Amino acid sequence: MSPVRRARATASILAALLAASCAHHGAAKAPEPPVTASQADSVTVCLWRFDESAGVRCLDSGPFRLDLTAGNNTRITYGRVGSAREFTRAIESFAYAPYNPVFDTAGGMTVEAWVYPHAFGQYELTPIAARWTQEGNTQSWVLAIVGQNLQAPLARLPSPGYYRQLILNARQGMVLFAFQPADASRPRAFYSTTRLPVERWTHVAASYDGSVVRFFIDGTLDAQYASPGRIQASRAPLLIGNYFDTRRLSSFSGELRLESGDDNPYYAFEGMIDNLRLSSTARTEFPGISR
User: Fold this and answer.
1) How many CA atoms lie within 13 A of 73 on its CB side?
2) Range 44-279: architecture per CATH
């Protein structure tokens, strides 16, 4: 065989072996396209990039410097842009900011983040970020991912049912945005049409301008719903990546811990959250986000 034919035969064999290897192991994942980090602009209320190298303090790049305190069952990891905060299925996996009046954005709002869920929750939903408690007149809004809504014995324990009324028309993996209207009517819940993948970064955003709720997935409009009114102002704190009664939190040497109570992590988010931003207007554009 001539050297040219020998080289061609070798190349064919290598190509066949590579194809067989890909078929057996699955195609290699394509690298994530580059994105631009969210910026603190004139309508930013808070922006947590989660770029810290250590500790439980999460710095706010917004104008009010409302830093978060993370629970001990979170950790710092590689993110979508820089570092991120990874949350686990544990009761002390959360990030928390006490109530501040700037959280009540009367002229409209947007809440957005990069999320990388490892799994969907067993119960009704897993909050990404929320100002929503079970105390009277303290429900404001919640951005979450719809969970599996399992019942016992499929779930280890029966759900406390805190969010059952919000997921009546939802399917697992949808993004949910709900708010309590200021006129004291029932909570209103809305859902994306897209169902999020697991083990992949996705940018999610929900905005409300007093007339229309809009969902954006990776910077593109996904769904919109007419819903006139105002979101109820509330003294609720901001809780990220979990839900529990925040009155159980106590401070010790700069750390937040939960005092005795039910420690089952019903609503814990499993995965990573990066570049969480709260704005005082209903954004319709997300530069540097679209894939």
Assistant:
1) 19
2) Sandwich (2.60)
